Amino acid sequence: MASAARLDLDGNAIKPMTICMIGAGGFIGSHLCEKLMAETMHKVLAVDVYNDKIRHLLEPAAHPWSDRIQFHRINIKHDSRLEGLIKMADLTVNLAAICTPADYNTRPLDTIYSNFIDALPVVKYCSENNKRLIHFSTCEVYGKTIGSFLPKDSPLRQDPAYYLLKEDASPCIFGSIEKQRWSYACAKQLIERLIYAEGAENGLEFTIVRPFNWIGPRMDFIPGIDGPSEGVPRVLACFSNNLLRREPLKLVDGGQSQRTFVYIKDAIEAVLLMIDNPGRANGHIFNVGNPNNEATVKQLAEMMTEVYAKVSGEPSLEVPTVDVSSKEFYGEGYDDSDKRIPDMTIINKQLGWNPKTSLWDLLESTLTYQHRTYAEAIKQAIAKPVAS
Ligand SMILES: NC(=O)c1ccc[n+]([C@@H]2O[C@H](COP(=O)([O-])OP(=O)(O)OC[C@H]3O[C@@H](n4cnc5c(N)ncnc54)[C@H](O)[C@@H]3O)[C@@H](O)[C@H]2O)c1
Ligand SMILES: O=C(O)[C@H]1O[C@H](OP(=O)(O)OP(=O)(O)OC[C@H]2O[C@@H](n3ccc(=O)[nH]c3=O)[C@H](O)[C@@H]2O)[C@H](O)[C@@H](O)[C@@H]1O
């Protein structure tokens, strides 16, 4: 239950504030709203075009926090109410974006508009009205590692200097323009530069968050159940869908890319520290990830298969994975980040934050949720005769 006597990292009482959260109806937004309602006295003006993932917080109206959350169905591309909401708030958190890789090379214009053009008014209103901004960028701004350009057998590939991703030192390395995969990363990079420049030239108080593969319940959708049948969500939902339907998990180009996965609930703790500690968070770019949870996509598939068998009680498939080319899976123009390990020095120093949950444990709680939420609906969808 929320308590009024919460203290910041310097021992001062935290004053309740009003937060304009754009993209509050998405995966991260839903977890952040939950946290803010359950553990703080902050008020949320939740802006999104959808509210399914936060409906449990909005209805019934008898929740203890009911007077602290308001939903505003607004498309920020064209709605004059946005500036008024930013003005009403002490802080704006901007999460709105197209952020599924299947869109980057197939809908590059929508991707660039969503991640750059549509964020411009948000930055402008915050700057003009002297409002603080926490903007969600991505670890994809690092692109590929320096080490990926070394010969495959070079011992330097093992040296962290060639792969560890540091906010204030690592370059942003993208592929050629035909590799439209990088449309998202490039748009995010440019909005980061604009926000940084607003800070430098106009005094905007900002924090930029670079999430490294946050995963957990409510991430994306299961195709044909709560999203389009032909849709391609991010890897957690793709693999969950395969496991629920008892199909082999598809490994793009052999599943050799490496990622570090962090549990959404750990990551949300970091965001709350940023919200509550402006003096320590303003002016910073933060990596938020779990360097201890590294796996290749193939290893992730194997672990998810094992965990799902445990939580569902169903035996694994004899052939649990199948290789597929990136061209077949994502289409022309796909490219990939080879390896993503966040350096944690800055977030450790400023906010003392560390992730806690192991990959196995986070997959166990997430796949338990996926099974409970979707297994029955999938069974019914599979059993339904196809209309002739
Ligand atoms: N989940 C991750 O691990 C991760 C990693 C890196 C970066 N990010 C960034 O974090 C942010 C949130 O990611 P998420 O995983 O919650 O994604 P999400 O797709 O679940 O949430 C984004 C939300 O923004 C809303 N939105 C998009 N365009 C909008 C518009 N024009 N007007 C109003 N609402 C709009 C969507 O409806 C959606 O609810 C994004 O900016 C994303 O790039 C997330
Ligand atoms: O989550 C993040 O930190 C960022 O990275 C993601 O990018 P990526 O990790 O490449 O996206 P996923 O869809 O989660 O894919 C991870 C890896 O799994 C592979 N994959 C995906 C799906 C699948 O069915 N099979 C498969 O092998 C992809 O090719 C990729 O190598 C997205 O760009 C963003 O949501 C975000 O900015």
How are the elements arranged and paired?
Blueprint (H helix, E strand, L loop, with lengths): L17 E5 L4 H13 L3 E6 L6 H4 L10 E5 L7 H8 L2 E4 L6 H4 L3 H8 L4 H9 L3 E5 L27 E2 L17 H20 L3 E6 L2 E2 L19 H10 L4 E4 L5 E3 L1 E2 H13 L1 H4 L2 E5 L5 E3 H16 L8 E4 L1 H5 L10 E2 L2 H7 L7 H25 L5
Parallel strand pairs: 1-2, 1-4, 2-3, 4-5, 5-7, 6-15, 7-12, 8-11, 9-14
Antiparallel strand pairs: 10-13
Bound molecules: nicotinamide-adenine-dinucleotide and uridine-5'-diphosphate-glucuronic acid.
Uridine-5'-diphosphate-glucuronic acid (UGA) binds next to α8 and β9.
Protein name: UDP-glucuronate decarboxylase
Catalytic activity: UDP-alpha-D-glucuronate + H(+) = UDP-alpha-D-xylose + CO2; UDP-alpha-D-glucuronate + H(+) = UDP-alpha-D-apiose + CO2
Main location: cytoplasm
Architecture overview:
There is one protein chain. The protein is of the alpha/beta class and 388 residues long. Helices cover 38% and strands 15% of the residues. It has a single domain, classed as NAD(P)-binding Rossmann-like Domain (Rossmann fold). The strands form five sheets. It has a seven-stranded parallel β-sheet, sandwiched between helices. It has a two-stranded parallel ribbon with strand order 6-15. α2 links the parallel β2 and β3. The radius of gyration is 21 Å and the shape is globular. 43% of the residues are buried. The model has no long low-confidence stretch (mean pLDDT 97). The site of uridine-5'-diphosphate-glucuronic acid has 20 residues, from α8 and β9.
